[in-house]
Specification:
The chain is mainly beta. Helix 1 crosses helix 2.
Length: 814
């Protein structure tokens, strides 16, 4: 209730608008009909019917009957699909209740969507989710990393190291970053098994190979890979295009940003084979000094498509070189030089500032996916996928005045004097292999019952090591050896079963049970030679049940409730920085979701209430291990609770409106902060603990608001105006105003115009302008504080984002 009152105080107009639409006397239009097999005339139960944007969807019952409720009048594209039959696409114009029957032809090509059904929420799954169709992805894809295409969905905050959305970027959903978000591509895990993070910079322009995305907020349904502790992102790459095509797109914009993409497809060859490809190059200087990126990627896919069997091989490859910008800008420089980048800074012999020109991150990642789907009948299908990911790369650092002993090297002796430190250039390498198998079996014997059995068995092996490639003074020791070397081996096995059963025609019950087993071994030496030994062996067995209820209250109103239990194992950094006195334990989350949806003639709205109760969540408290490295500590109790509102309306045929808003409270119930104590000469004396009681979880804004208007003044032209408000965020978990990010409000505009000619099928022109009013804001930061000689000392780094900037592009489709 407190959240509802707060919502009304801040945005009373929203409630007035929703109330007006909810209780106004607006007529309803529906599309009904039957779906039958063309040759025999028998009804097809379980066929899917949806509008092209999937805003309204349904499935046929045992008599083949379907109904699309509360459809917006006007022109629309309908899609009818069913395994083993040819997909039907039909454009219709409706202004009143309409009856349309469909006859489907058998012996068709099996659709790609069957391979990802098991890990996605379906029409009546009682979970909180959003879908991003291909049309939206194409409109938003101007070279920025994939998180920026998702930023207008509920409860999302994005950030960019270089300030432009190109290069290293991050996304948080409900305050959870990418180490707590499960990400899959075609149902195959994308999260790095050790760190549990995802770096979309490793797969540049993935959006150009993406057909659609589903975001499940909260725990969601069972999936493969890392635990979903805030959300899951399910990406499906490009699906079968039966017609040959070629496409060239080029974008250019602020900060010398360029994106060039070439795509092609053969269409169906001899009725069963198809091949598609993409090559992309993205470059940018970045808003931050030397925040440059050079990103290359390609995607090749080919397969056999039969009436009951599909075999597809998919390669995704990315290679990135980015100048490091992850230290951020010191707070005292934000008002004088917002683009200052301290990375690579050093001084020459005369004391002049220099920058190392190769202070870069370099990494290549190659994904190989072999996917097999087979339909045994109208009710049963099997999906298998073999995958292998190869990753290898390093980041290079100029390190001034480094002690040779810290790298296991002997002092340099010149005549009668010893040199104990030197300037050097180092590289930290990661060389890893990730491979495994995923599977799912879907059984749909009748409209009321859907059963799924799925799972995965994956193994990861990573090598971490460091090299010295140059030193001002070469040691008499072994300069060629790795100064540290360690390995990580992780086995991840999971199996899940899902059941959806409809009773009384309007109520669907859902159950989802998952078992997950993890074996993780870290062994070797690490780069901190004060604490060199790294030897951890951990095993986990998790049981993650989920259950829920979905009900059609009326033809226009639906409600759902779900409960989910999830577990998450500590990641590599949690162990690497820990010691035997601070062994991190697994985290547990109990997630409760309650939602309501309203579909009217010109209006759709949704309200979702959530309560996420964490046990032993790992957070930074300022505590150190036995050699002074920061560690994450399990806090016994913490929670996130909030309300998410979504709405969209077709106000006129030429004007559309959409919005979403999240109001939330994100708290640690009893937090103790630890602060380092040094004497005036920086000799470590110990730590002081400060009990603070209930505090806010870091990087969890209490208010998020997105609003957009799309104008279609003439055919083939659209203009979109959008705004985004992100509330105040705390940088650490102390709720200190001195260590917080100010709220910010952004506005942008995008436009697109399509021309069709006799020689070129489609010419698309598009323009995007971001941060229209040049708001000065920071989207991320870090902070460290200590007492030195009794005086508080603070070190920090903030990430300023670019003022007004643009991307202008053209796309040619043949």
């Amino acid at each position: 209730m407190l959240l509802l009152k707060k919502l009304f105080r801040i945005f009373p107009g929203t409630f007035i608008l929703v109330s007006g639409f909810s209780f106004g006397s607006i007529a309803q239009v529906s599309v009904t009909g039957t779906i039958r097999e063309k040759d025999t005339g028998r009804p097809l139960s379980g066929a899917s019917v949806s509008t092209d944007n999937k805003m309204v969807s349904s499935s046929s019952d045992e008599k083949g009957a379907y109904i699309l409720k509360s459809v917006k009048p006007g022109k629309m594209d309908l899609k009818v699909s069913f395994m083993g039959f040819a997909t039907i696409r039909k454009s219709i114009l409706i202004n009143k209740d309409t009856v349309i029957d469909f006859l489907m032809e058998g012996h068709a090509i099996l659709g790609d969507e069957v391979s990802i059904v098991a890990t996605r929420a379906q029409e009546k799954t009682p979970m909180t989710y959003s879908g991003i169709p291909s049309s939206v992805i194409r409109e938003e894809n101007t070279g920025k990393d994939l998180p920026y295409i998702l930023q207008t969905t509920p409860s999302v905050v994005v950030t960019s190291d270089a300030g432009t959305g190109i290069g290293y970027t991050g996304i948080a959903i409900r305050g959870s970053d990418l180490t707590r978000i499960n990400v899959t591509v075609n149902g195959i895990p994308l999260n790095d098994p050790e760190s549990q993070g995802v770096w979309f910079v490793d797969l540049p322009d993935l959006a150009s190979s993406t057909d659609n995305i589903q975001i499940q907020r909260g725990v969601g349904t069972s999936t493969n890979g890392a635990g979903a502790f805030g959300a899951s992102i399910n990406i499906q790459t490009q699906t079968l295009n039966q017609d040959p095509y070629g496409e060239v797109s080029s974008d250019a914009g602020s900060y010398d940003s360029f994106k060039n993409t070439f795509k092609f497809g053969t269409g169906l060859l001899v009725n069963h084979f198809a091949f598609d490809g993409r090559v992309s190059l993205i470059t940018s200087d970045g808003y931050i000094d030397r925040g440059s990126s050079r990103l290359f990627s390609y995607n090749l896919t080919g397969g056999y498509f039969g009436n009951k069997t599909t075999v597809r091989f998919n390669i995704l490859s990315g290679k990135e070189k980015t100048y490091q910008a992850w230290e951020g800008v010191p707070k005292d420089s934000l008002n004088t030089n917002r683009t200052f980048n301290p990375m690579g800074l050093h001084y020459d012999k005369a004391g002049n500032i220099e920058y190392y020109d190769n202070q870069t991150d370099n990494y290549q990642q190659d994904h190989y996916q072999l996917m097999f789907s087979h339909v045994f009948g109208h009710a049963l299908d099997l999906n298998l996928a073999l995958h292998y990911t190869k990753g290898k790369g390093y980041y290079e650092n100029y390190e001034p005045d480094q002690a040779l002993a810290d790298y296991g090297l002997a002092d340099v002796v010149i005549r009668d004097s010893s040199i104990t430190s030197t300037d050097m250039i180092t590289q930290k390498w990661l060389n890893n292999d990730f491979y495994g198998l995923t599977f799912s079996v879907n059984y749909h014997p009748r409209e009321q019952l859907k059963l799924t059995l799925g799972g995965a068995a994956n193994q990861y092996f990573g090598k971490h090591y460091g090299k010295i490639i140059w030193a001002q003074y070469a040691s008499d020791g072994d300069n060629e050896k790795n100064w540290y070397y360690n390995t990580g081996l992780k086995n991840d096995l999971n199996i899940y079963s899902k059941c959806s059963y409809t009773i009384f025609k309007r109520i669907s019950l859902f159950a989802d049970l998952q078992y997950r087993h993890i074996y993780y071994r870290i062994l070797g030496t690490q780069d901190d030679l004060y604490n060199p030994d790294l030897d951890w062996l951990k095993k986990f067995d998790f049981f993650n049940p989920k259950a829920g209820l979905y009900a059609d209250i009326t033809k226009t109103q639906q409600v759902y409730f779900s409960f989910a239990l999830a577990h998450r194992e500590p990641n590599r950094n949690n162990y690497e920085n820990a010691d035997k006195d601070h062994v991190p334990s697994a985290e547990k989350l109990l997630d409760y979701e309650l939602g309501y949806d309203l579909h009217l003639k010109h209006f759709h709205a949704g309200i979702n209430l959530y309560y996420m109760n964490y046990h032993d969540q790992l957070v930074l408290t300022g505590a150190l291990n036995n050699v002074g490295e920061a560690i994450m500590v399990n806090v016994p109790k913490s929670y996130r609770e909030g309300i998410e509102l979504t709405a969209d309306a077709g106000i006129f045929r030429w004007l559309k409106w959409n919005m979403n808003m999240t109001l939330s409270r994100n708290k640690i119930r009893d937090f103790t902060e630890y602060v380092d104590i040094y004497d005036a000469e920086w000799n470590f004396l110990g730590q002081a603990g400060y009990p603070l009681g209930q505090t806010d979880l870091s990087f969890s804004p209490g208010v998020l608001f997105t609003n957009g208007f799309t104008f279609i003044p003439v055919k083939n032209l659209f203009i979109s105006l959008n705004s985004r408000y992100v509330g105040k965020q705390y940088i650490d978990n102390t709720s200190s105003n001195d260590r917080s990010l100010h709220a910010y409000f952004l506005q942008g505009i995008s436009a697109g115009y399509t021309i069709r000619t006799r020689f070129i099928h489609e010419i698309g022109l598009h323009l995007t302008v971001n941060n229209l009013l040049s708001e000065k804001y920071e989207s991320n930061a870090w902070v460290y504080r200590a007492y030195v000689g009794g005086i508080e000392t603070v070190e920090d780094g903030y990430f300023p984002q670019a003022p007004v900037n643009y991307m202008l592009g053209i796309t040619l489709k043949m």
